[in-house]
Design brief:
single chain; alpha+beta
């Protein structure tokens, strides 16, 4: 499986942001499953990001990281593709 994501180091914290479909962040159970699945892959806290039909991002995960990411422009995030077995 391939996912789009980014590993970010900011203010002494390292975390990952993974792009998911909107229904994932809209359903706590789906979001928790996704975070639990991605965390061992990245080895750092994971926040999920989904975009609405206008391209506006919504973040789900640790509140401090989600709040921080909501202030970061999407074009500033170092996105790349990850292959997960």
């Amino acid at each position: 499986m391939r996912v789009q994501g980014a590993v970010i180091r900011e203010q002494g914290q390292t975390f990952a942001v993974v792009i998911v479909k909107p229904y994932v962040v809209q359903n706590r159970s789906e979001a928790a499953n996704a975070i639990n699945g991605f965390t061992p892959v990245f080895g750092v806290p994971v926040v999920l990001m989904a975009q609405d039909s206008r391209g506006r991002p919504t973040y789900y995960g640790r509140p401090d990281i989600a709040k921080f990411m909501s202030s970061v422009p999407l074009h500033r995030i170092p996105w790349r593709e990850y292959t997960i077995n």
